[in-house]
Amino acid sequence: MSDLGVSRVLLVYIDFDNDIGQCGIETPIIGKERVIDSAFKFAMCKPSDSDINALFATLRLADELARKGVYAEVAIVGGDPRGGAWAFMKLTQDMKLVHESTGISKAIAVFDSVEDEKVLMIMRNYFEVVGVETVVVEQSRSIETAYTLLAKYLKKAIEDPRYSKLFVGYPGLAILMFSVLALFNLIREGLLAFLIVLSIAMIVRGFNLDVHLSHLSKRPAKLLLTGLTAITLFAAASFTVMELYTHILRNASLSIAIASILKNYSYLYLLAPAIPILAKAIGALIRGSYRTLFYIAILIDIVLLYMLLQEFSYMILLTSDPTMKVSELVVHGLASSLLVVAIIVLTVSAELAVRELTRKRKKEAPNINVQISSPSAGKTV
């Protein structure tokens, strides 16, 4: 027994994201000689990886324990580059194999990152953890390196045509624009215009709208439909903003503003989806598809929905009117309920009718094919 009260201990180096496995070295690795060999192979594969320093720190700790009379076995366990549950399952498997192979009950965990500490709860299922060693790798000349990298990237941003336009050209234009606007005391308007242009550019790039538009340009009909829909939505949004602004100036309530928008501009919001649906209905009619019935039903639903929104606007206006009659509110409420029922019934009926007609067509299709493919003798089958 050593003076530390422990005769045998296992040093387990934990590589949560299995960097060592990416160099073709399989884990678990058990035994000091095998660990030394693996450490050198890993160093040749990834010489700048911090795991190398941590591995040699583990071996040095084993030598220090040996000098104090403790038999220290060394092992490496690895997780998975995908992290999460994948890494935990792989580490559990490695821990079990190491425990069965060594038969050592006490262990010291060695790791070089906070993420690796998560494995301690798994390790305690197989070993009595008597110590935890965190290896902090010293980075020499870190400040000088940071300044060197910063200077390198700044030089690239200025001299490389791909980046100079973004980091120097556009900011230069913006500064020039604001300088000229400041001379004419139009800095506020210029800032608003700049923010609008910037937001549009961010939306286009963020949603890959430029890519979608390039695809649409190859299909003029689809581009036309998309353009009409976008223009309709833009008009609806513009009128909505104007209406809200007008009601704010009049100190009108929000409910009155909403009722006014529903009454005056709901048709624009409904016209936007109606355009592509109408195009689909025409396409289905040309193909002779029964889906034409469903698209026609949806178009009728849009008309009914417009009527429903009109009823809602009347109801909102009635509730804001002190001279409101309850009977009028009840009438509009019943009308709204009937419209909702009509929309549901029409949609469901159209879908069921399309399915039934399609099913009948599929049943009749084989018989038609047999009659057409008559034998050469001229007889029908």
Class from helix and strand fractions = alpha/beta
How would a textbook summarize the main sheet? 5 strands, mixed
From N to C, what is the helix and strand string?
EEHHEHEHEHHHHHHHH
Strand order of the largest sheet: 2-3-1-4-5
Unreliable parts: 368-381
Instruction: Count the DSSP helices.
Output: 12
Using only C-alpha atoms, the radius of gyration works out to 37 Å
Shape: elongated
- What is the tally of beta strands? 5
**Distance between the ends:** 98 Å
Strand percentage lies at 5-15%
**Percentage of residues in helical conformation:** 55-70%
Mean pLDDT: 79
Number of domains: 3
Task: Give a description of the structure.
- The structure is a single chain.
- This protein folds into 3 domains: 127 residues, no CATH class; 60 residues; 146 residues, no CATH class.
- The termini are far apart.
- It has a 5-stranded mixed sheet, sandwiched between helices.
- The radius of gyration is 37 Å and the shape is elongated.
- With 381 residues, it is an alpha/beta fold.
- Strand 4, helix 4 and strand 5 form a beta-alpha-beta unit.
- The protein is built from 12 helices and 5 strands.
